[in-house]
Every structure is written in C-alpha cells, then in structure tokens.
Design a protein that fits this description.
The protein is an alpha/beta fold. The protein is built from nine helices and 16 strands. The longest helix has 16 residues.
C-alpha cells in the first residue's frame, strides 16, 4: 500500500483528483452527511493509519475552514504518520493586520486555528499559494510548518499569452507596484501603475498613470480578484490613457455573485485569466474567464 494518500474537502474533489494523479497518489473516500439541524457528519472511509496524508482544500468559507480543521484533527487522531494541509486559497488573508482598534485579524486567527490541529508523529505542514503578504506564514504556530508556494510559472506563461510581443505590465494600484515591477523586469517589459486619491471615506479616484500606455496593450496582474472594483478603476484609467486593450491575469479568482458579469459588461476588459485555486473560478469558466490549473504546481510540491 502506498503510504501517501490524498483527501479532499467537499467541493474540491476535481482539483484534488488532478493533484493526486500528478503526484501518483490515491484519492481517499470521505463519508459526509448533514443532520436536520445543520450539524455535519464526516467519516474517513479510507484508512489513514501509518500513512502520509494530504488534505486539500481552501479556506474559502467558514464552513470550509471548519471542515479542514475537523478532517485534519480526525486524520491525526486516526493514526496518520504525517499531515499536509494543501490550501490553494487561504481565506481571510486580505485582513492580515488591524488598521483600527478592535478589528479581528482574520489571517492570524485562521492560522492559529489550523496550527491547533494535533501534531502527527512525522509532523504537520501547510502549503499556501500566492499569499497577499509574505508575512502570513509567520502567523502559523507550534508544530505546523507553513510553506509559501509561488504560482509565478503559471502567471508568467499567462501574461505572455495575453500580452503578445509588445505590452505593458500593470497593476491596480501602487501598493503592488514593487511586485509587478520585479515581474516586468523578468519579462523584459515596461511596468505601469496608477496613483489614487481618496475622494470620500469609501471611494477613491485615479489621479495619474505612471507609464506611457497609449497605443499599447496592457496586461494587469493582481494576486486576487474579488468584486473587481479596484480592477475596473485601473482598467478605466489605462483605457483613458490610450491603451488599445486591457487583459487581466490573477492567481485567485474569488469572484462572488455578480462580480464577473460586472467586469464583462464594463467593456473595459478583453479577457481575464485566473487559476483554479478557488472553486468559484472553476464554476464560472467561460470565453471571457480562462482558468488554468494549479494541479501540476501542487503535485510537484507534493512529489518526494
């Protein structure tokens, strides 16, 4: 029996199967049901005793986070030799620090919860993909070792395909400028970003574009797309500055209900490319939203 075993959160089975196939692992079975009061039941059907178990699933919701925690604890308590939490999307990461008194730092609290999973004899680790800030792995505590994976190879390939031979690599605001500038240097293209000024307590306006984009294609990169408000503001600024087209590449496509339609109907963006790190992106794949898989990247990280 192969000592390695893949388990999946509910709704993440297709990605888990692709990663398992790439890493040469079996995908185990989990029995699930929901009681009338909403309480959830889980049972590990495939034995995990003495095995190196990978539990794949993002903390895309409170329910998913608790399922990751519950299954992680159960896996260790049932005798797994080691436990790897493979988390393609780490929810709560944009709230990585408190800005105002009394704010809950969700990234730290989620990390603390997962860190409290009992330690397997050969250790626990968490594989995290393209986090919003590099400091988040340091929120994990105790026996759990956090590893920050980069989707850069997938991102670079998608950017080249979207931009063609001559394009400007751009970002939504100056906060991501250094990251995008490093990426632009490696691609040997020009970088651009927008300056914003706050017009009220809840709104901002673009005041300047940093680079000459007139008559050129623009590819915007960001680590994630949620509602797309910042993305639309930046795309409008690049279009107003004379860009012939605007495409978007992002690692995580969160895209809650209505967001993708809003982006498509704006007429500002030609196409969007994201990975399948978030199940929402997988569900909404279309001619406008292209989805590339992180399965080979995750499989490589799990292959001895």
């Amino acid at each position: 029996m192969d000592p390695r075993l893949m388990l999946s959160l509910d709704g993440e089975e297709s990605l888990a199967q692709a990663v398992a196939d790439g890493a040469g692992m079996a995908l185990g079975l989990i029995e699930r049901r929901t009681f009338p009061d909403g309480e959830r039941y889980h049972r590990l059907v495939t034995p995990v005793e003495g095995r190196d178990v990978v539990l794949l699933g993002g903390t895309v919701s409170d329910a998913a986070t608790l399922e990751l925690y519950d299954l992680g604890c159960t896996t260790v308590e049932c005798g797994a030799r080691s436990l790897t939490l493979c988390v393609p999307f780490f929810g709560g990461q944009t709230m990585e620090r408190a800005v105002r008194p009394g704010e809950a730092v969700m990234a730290k609290l989620r990390a603390r919860l997962l860190s409290s999973i009992p330690a397997a004899p050969f250790g626990n680790r968490a594989l995290l993909l393209d986090l919003h800030t590099d400091g988040i792995p340091y929120y994990f505590e105790g026996a759990l070792r956090a590893v920050h994976l980069s989707a850069r190879p997938l991102v670079v390939e998608a950017i080249r395909a979207a931009g063609g031979d001559d394009f400007v690599l751009a970002c939504t605001d100056s906060g991501r400028a250094k990251w995008v500038e490093r990426l632009a240097n490696s691609l040997q293209v020009e970088a651009a970003f927008v300056f914003k000024r706050r017009t009220s307590g809840s709104t901002t306006a673009v005041s300047m574009v940093s680079a000459q984009v007139r008559g050129r294609r623009v590819v915007i990169y960001d680590d994630m797309i949620r509602t797309g408000s910042s993305l639309l503001g930046a795309a409008a600024a690049y279009r107003d500055a004379g860009a012939t087209s605007v495409s978007v590449v992002a690692t995580h496509g969160v895209l809650p209900a209505g967001s993708l339609d809003r982006l498509r109907n704006s007429g500002l963006i030609d196409r969007i490319v994201v990975t399948d790190s978030h199940p929402s992106a997988r569900r909404q794949s279309s001619d406008f939203l292209s989805v590339v898989s992180v399965a080979p990247l995750l499989a490589a990280a799990l292959t001895p």
